[in-house]
Design brief:
198 residues, mainly alpha, 11 helices, 2% strand
Length: 198
Amino acid sequence: MIEKQRCRWATASAPEVNIPYHDEEWGVPVHDDRTLFEFLILDGFQAGLSWATILKKRDHFRGVFDNFKAAAITRYNERKIESLLQDRGIIRNRLKIEAAVKNARAFLRLQEEFGSFDRYIWGFVNGSPIVNAWDSWDDVPATSPESDAMSRDLKRRGFSFVGSTICYAFMQAAGLVNDHEIGCFRYAEVCSRTSIKQ
């Protein structure tokens, strides 16, 4: 049986979590507000860590963070934050936990202003995924002009842990950009109708 060719990051480490995520989720356009919020928060928690670390803890994160329902997270008080800081099943970083609460409030404001977070966030790519054409994972950037703009605007609107690198990782995860290597079997599967950027 011929092994499928995948992006190098998926097989380089922790393949038990990275391969299923790569094969089923990464780069697929997401338009559900709750899922978009989950990706944004988890990408913030990833800062300084590997994505595999987050994937291994994702189910537990969902359990203790009310399945990433922003309205519920806005009600977290100091007692809840302290309980999260004692939970070994998540990333126990006070700044990141407090940022999740702050970001939930900012997220709800954006939903109210734009009708949905989906409408707001996809505006940074004019509503259609950016389809890149990388021969090698070494070519994939850590940021882009779109992630720069997204980061600036999210910060202006009260979000934290939304630097350009985090925003670009979010864009990759939520399918605002297709960064699968062109030799990867998933590249064609998640390609959009947009033209390929050269």
